[in-house]
Amino acid sequence: MTDVSRRKVLSLLAGGFVAFLASPSAVDAMPTIRAGDICKKLGRRTTEGNKTFECVNSNGKRVWKRVTKTTQPTSTTQPATPTTSEVKVLDSSALTVGKSENVVVNSGGRNFAVVVTRTSAGVFAFNRACTHQGTLVTVNSLNQLECISHGSLFNLTTGAVIEGPASRALTSYKVTERSGAIYLTL
Ligand code: FES
């Protein structure tokens, strides 16, 4: 084989190898993240090619889970959109100091999941939809509002984030108490 034809053969082989590495099928064949791999930060998302993974809690372990574009928040209520109407939610006697109640408030034809708490400082009400992805928060044993999906924690009387991945406070509602009843303005 002459020098020229040997060079041609070598250049064709090298070009084919580069094309293989750059092809989508080659990239797909070598993912760096797979569902079930260990991850570090709950709620973090990353995309590999056309696949998106989210770091979730699974049986006490933090692992990557594949998510699809059609994944919806697990909230069962509408997002908090104020309608500025006052709604009676509880009798005052039903909420003693230190107690929280979960209520569903219908306003403007829509249902809102709300947690109402009475402390010695007053009565506080927040939409229960976690500001991360909408899972409903519940009061935990430390008197914090906790989201079980990815572990966000919120202050029970201010709604502020104590721990992420949520980065925004819960939506709060104005509380009015009169004539033995508690009203929220939604
Ligand atoms: S939905 Fe992710 S922390 Fe609440």
How are the SSEs placed, and which strands pair?
Layout: H1 3-22, H2 24-28, E1 45-48, E2 51-58, E3 61-67, E4 86-91, E5 100-107, E6 110-119, E7 122-127, E8 138-139, E9 144-146, E10 153-155, E11 161-163, E12 172-178, E13 181-185
Antiparallel strand pairs: 1-2, 2-3, 4-13, 5-6, 6-7, 7-12, 8-9, 9-10, 10-11, 12-13
Bound molecules: FE2/S2 (inorganic) cluster.
Would you give an account of this structure?
This protein has 186 residues and is mainly β. It has two domains: 30-71, no CATH class; 86-185, Rieske Iron-sulfur Protein, CATH 2.102.10. 13% of the residues lie in helices and 39% in strands. It contains two helices and 13 strands. The protein has helices at 3-22, 24-28, and strands at residues 45-48, 51-58, 61-67, 86-91, 100-107, 110-119, 122-127, 138-139, 144-146, 153-155, 161-163, 172-178, 181-185. The chain has a six-stranded antiparallel sheet with strand order 4-13-12-7-6-5, with no helix packed on it. A four-stranded antiparallel sheet has the order 8-9-10-11, with no helix packed on it. A three-stranded antiparallel sheet has the order 1-2-3, with no helix packed on it. The longest helix has 20 residues, at 3-22. The radius of gyration is 26 Å and the shape is elongated. Mean pLDDT is 79; it is low at 12-29 and 70-77. The structure holds FE2/S2 (inorganic) cluster (FES). FE2/S2 (inorganic) cluster binds at residues 43, 130, 132-133, 135, 147, 149-150, 152, 165-166.
